[in-house]
Every structure is written in C-alpha cells, then in structure tokens.
Design a protein that fits this description.
alpha/beta, Rossmann fold, five-stranded parallel β-sheet, 5 helices, 5 strands
C-alpha cells in the first residue's frame, strides 16, 4: 500500500507561481492544491482540510493575514508558510507564532521544502526569514 502524501494547499494569485510551486510540492512528496484567492481556499475547507498551507501575504480581496484570521476564528490550526515579495510587510509577530513560517520571494526550492517540513514537524525548525 502506498503511503498517503500530505495535502498542502497553496494560495497565490499568480498562476505561474502556483504551477511552479505545485510541481515542486509533488517532487517533494506532497499533494498540492492551488487556489488563486483566499476566499476560494476557505470554501475548499468544506471539502478537504490540508496538512499545511503556503499562503501569499498580498492577495486581491482577502489578504493572507485575513485568511489566517478566518482560520483562527473557525478553530483551524493549520501550519502556515507565508510567502511575500514585499519588504515592507510587518511580519515580525508572524515569526513568533507556532506553526507559522515566513519566506521572502525569491526563495530556493530547498528553502520552501524545508519550511514546509518544519511547519509539519517533519524537520527541525530553522530561521527562514530573509
């Protein structure tokens, strides 16, 4: 029997980013699910809950932080890896949270896979903030 691959949701409004990161996740042993908005991801929770979440901070409509707030309000404790291209996003409090990581774009494939592994308690935690 083949072991189940952990399902990782990916929320980013840039289609090329979703395609590239979905491929990387598959190669890393995960089952990806890509969403172009926070709203679409939150609706998907009615069908399937991910083991982890890669979440862009700056999304049209609901921001990544708003998605995190909605998850908390719903009692969901999904480990999150935030990704952002912004240097000006105030994320110092995010780094202190359990189960949350922060990566600044561009990041290496290995860095993302390591962050996901750490968020899922599969690898030792490291400092991923660039």
């Amino acid at each position: 029997m083949t072991p189940t691959r952990p399902y990782i949701a990916l929320v980013d409004d840039e289609a090329p980013v979703c395609v590239a990161l979905s491929r990387l996740l598959r190669l890393g042993g995960y089952e990806p699910g890509a969403f172009s908005s926070g709203e679409a991801f939150l609706e998907s929770l009615q069908i399937r809950r991910p083991a982890g979440l890669i979440l862009d901070v700056q999304l049209p409509g609901m921001s990544g932080f708003e998605v995190r707030t909605r998850l908390r309000e719903a009692g969901e404790n999904i480990p999150i890896v935030f990704i952002t291209a912004s240097e000006n996003v105030g994320l110092s409090s995010v780094r202190a949270e359990t189960g949350v990581r922060l990566l600044r774009k561009p990041f290496s494939n290995a860095t993302l896979l390591d962050a996901i592994g750490a968020a899922l308690d599969r690898r030792p935690q490291a400092d991923y903030g660039n």
